[in-house]
Write a structure and sequence with these properties.
Blueprint: E1 6-14, H1 20-29, E2 42-51, E3 54-63, H2 70-73, E4 82-88, H3 92-96, H4 98-109, E5 119-124, H5 135-144, E6 150-152, H6 161-180
Parallel strand pairs: 1-3, 1-4, 4-5, 5-6
Antiparallel strand pairs: 2-3
The structure holds guanosine-5'-triphosphate and magnesium ion.
Family: Belongs to the small GTPase superfamily. Rab family.
EC number: 3.6.5.2
GO cellular component, one term: phagocytic vesicle membrane
């Protein structure tokens, strides 16, 4: 089973302290630490999942959100299959910074068309009482940003954590399916047609 699973690189981004490491640890090990340390650079963990009857190994890259670690995290964006943009619902600035995170990711991952890349947005710390970012505002941001799926999570009490991570795989599948749809009148290449200019090619 493990040998057949597809490996997916998933990058977790967002401001320092929003709960990226806590989300990864909840998802992978089902643990939560109220006194976690800031991440320095990047760390990754693997988790096997099944989505729509297909086996995947999600390789989750947890990055350091603090500005001073920028040069340590950005080299790891290349080759990502999906990206989880994370903010904390009690931290308005972390929500405002989502656009900056998306831009940083697209630039260093060298992705041209941001709207066809699978981003998922997570509003974490939904268990807190002093929420500052309304759900509607977060949903509006997602709608204006390629229609990314949005989840409100709590790494502390496990709310939606599993669903949010797995939705990244679903989003990837959805966008891949969309790319596979062939245009009705597009140019096609006839693979059966023999090349006259180079008849000896390829045996
Ligand atoms: N109440 C509550 N606290 C949380 C939640 N998730 C994380 N925390 C706490 O928030 C603090 C920061 O969490 P981290 O997971 O270290 O944040 P981070 O995004 O990895 O931060 P950097 O590594 O600096 O980028 C810790 O004290 C966590 O215990 C949550 O869902 N609810
Ligand atoms: Mg961290």
């Amino acid at each position: 089973m493990a040998g057949k699973s597809k490996l997916l690189k998933v990058v977790l981004l967002g401001d320092g302290g929003v709960g990226k490491s806590s989300l990864m640890n909840r998802f992978v090990s089902n643990k939560f630490d109220a006194q976690s340390f800031h991440t320095i650079g990047v760390e990754f963990l693997n988790k096997d999942v099944e989505v729509d009857s297909e086996a995947y190994t999600m390789q989750i890259w947890d990055t350091a959100g603090q500005e001073r670690f920028k040069s340590l995290r950005t080299p790891f964006y290349r080759g990502a299959d999906c990206c989880l943009l994370t903010y904390a619902v009690d931290d308005l600035q972390s929500f405002k910074n989502l656009a900056m995170w998306k831009k940083e990711f697209l630039f260093y991952a060298d992705i041209q068309d941001g709207n066809s890349f699978p981003f998922v947005v997570l509003g974490n710390k939904i268990d807190v009482e002093n929420r500052l970012v309304p759900e509607e505002e977060a949903k509006a941001w997602c709608a204006a940003n390629g229609g990314s799926p949005y989840f409100e999570t709590s790494a502390k009490d496990s709310t939606n954590v599993d669903r949010a991570f797995k939705s990244a795989v679903q989003r990837l599948r959805e966008l891949e399916d969309r790319m596979d749809i062939k245009p009705a009148h597009g140019n096609t290449v006839d693979l059966q047609k023999k090349s006259k200019s180079n008849p000896g090619c390829c045996g």
